[in-house]
Amino acid sequence: MKARDLAGYLIGLALFVVLIPLFMWKITGTVTPGSVRIVIFALMAIAGIGLSVWTIVYMRLVGKGNPMDAFDHEVAPRTSKLMTDGPYKICRNPMLLGVFIYYLGLVIVLWSWKALVVFIVFICIMMVQVSSEEQRLERDFGEEYLKYKARTKKIIPFIW
């Protein structure tokens, strides 16, 4: 694995799995969640992080690339093949869906309007990123991507 690939994975891990959740927790203050909220969070964290990890592994093995591509700036090598199977059959952005599931679990366990605001701001920023990424994918993969886009939901399977 190249240093640039490793950097992409470490930046993603630090930002999405550690720093943003830590920020959500920090601004919320002292929280004493009930056991039901803890169980819901644990299940959502496992499901969300699991989906994101599956997507990263699939992207590495099948797409021959790295997910760290921010606002059309290649941080680590991009995928060289359009991925439409595996987690990409679920939706066009399965890694982001996994992060959303994880963060929604955090909002539930923290039960704070401040954590909810962070989550909503994160969604808005990511939607701008997704729009930028979709433009790049249309340039890179053309008609193949447009057909995939027409038959596969953006984030939430069967809905959006």
Features:
160 residues; mainly alpha; two-stranded antiparallel sheet; 4 helices; 68% helix; globular
How would you explain this protein's 3D organization?
With 160 residues, the protein is mainly alpha-helical. It has one domain. Helices cover 68% and strands 2% of the residues. It has 4 helices and 2 strands; from the N terminus they run ααββαα. It has helices spanning 3-28, 35-61, 94-110, 113-151; strands at residues 69-70, 73-74. A two-stranded antiparallel sheet has the order 1-2. A hairpin with a 2-residue loop joins strand 1 (69-70) and strand 2 (73-74). Helix 1 packs across helix 4 (113-151). The N and C termini lie far apart (35 Å).
In summary, what is this structure?
With 160 residues, this protein is mainly alpha-helical. Helices cover 68% and strands 2% of the residues. The chain has four helices and two strands, in the order ααββαα.
Run of helices and strands: HHEEHH
Query: Looking at the structure, what is the overall shape?
Result: globular
Q: Give the strand order, joined by hyphens, for the main sheet.
A: 1-2
Number of strands: 2
Structural class based on helices, strands and sheet pairing:
mainly alpha
Number of helices: 4
Radius of gyration: 16 Å
Strand content: under 5%
What's the topology here?
Layout: H1 3-28, H2 35-61, E1 69-70, E2 73-74, H3 94-110, H4 113-151
Antiparallel strand pairs: 1-2
Helix pairs in contact: 1-3, 1-4, 2-3, 3-4
